[in-house]
Design brief:
Layout: E1 2-10, E2 20-29, E3 32-40, H1 49-55, H2 59-62, H3 68-79, E4 83-86, H4 89-103, E5 112-114, H5 115-122, H6 131-137, H7 148-166, H8 175-182
Parallel strand pairs: 1-4, 4-5
Antiparallel strand pairs: 1-2, 2-3
């Protein structure tokens, strides 16, 4: 089974207002990490202290790093049409979608699956379903949390462990069944076709 786990770090919690400061993604093949995409992102604004306290990312770390519109095409190319997984996926997807729309950028084509609601069904009775709690419960080796590459790796390992538990006779569940387990509608990134700019009668761009 092949999929890509991804995670973001941001300046806050409001998509379209707060900005992405880090993207991490790990491609897994049969449960093993095969390739990594990871970059800090210059948000073009100071990072609030509260966000830095959570993710450990400070202004001097993102200075001179690529801006989001230059990162999105590389991220989309890395992901291709592979299945995408993230913990609390709607949060990350909303941030990426806001920038994809703003910059009319290419986007990953695969379906996005949220590991959070699946974990609630596969591992009932846990005190909470934070990624750190699940990693500890499954005894997944871990170092730091709230950095995009590390959290993406933990999410991918979590997803693979859940897939093994709900596979039947060694057959992984179909994507439609995984989506049904989340209890949510299918989630995908918008595929935007950039329209050529046209000149108006007064010589300006429409």
């Amino acid at each position: 089974m092949r999929f890509i786990a991804f995670d973001l770090e941001t300046t806050g919690t409001v998509p379209g207002v707060d900005q992405i400061v880090e993207i991490g993604a790990v491609r897994f093949v049969n449960g093993e990490p095969e390739a990594i995409f990871a970059t800090l992102v210059d948000p073009r604004r100071p990072i609030p202290p509260g966000a830095s306290n959570v993710n450990g990312i400070y202004d001097e770390m993102v200075k001179g790093k690529p801006v989001i519109e230059s990162v999105l095409p590389s991220f989309a190319e890395f992901c291709g049409d592979d299945i995408l997984v993230a913990h609390n996926a709607p949060f990350d997807a909303q941030f990426l979608t806001a920038d994809i729309k703003k910059h009319e950028a290419v986007a990953p084509k695969g379906v996005v699956i949220d590991t959070l609601p699946i974990a609630r069904k596969v591992f009932p009775g846990l005190p909470n379903y934070k990624l750190g709690t699940l990693v500890q419960y499954l005894k997944i080796p871990s170092t730091e949390f709230h950095r995009a590459e590390e959290d993406a790796s933990y999410c991918g390992q979590l997803f693979y462990q859940m897939i093994k538990r709900i596979s039947v006779a060694g057959q992984a569940p179909q994507v439609a069944n995984l989506i049904a387990l989340t209890g949510k509608a299918e989630l995908r990134f918008p595929q935007i076709v950039r329209q050529p700019k046209q000149m108006d009668l007064f010589g300006g761009l429409l």
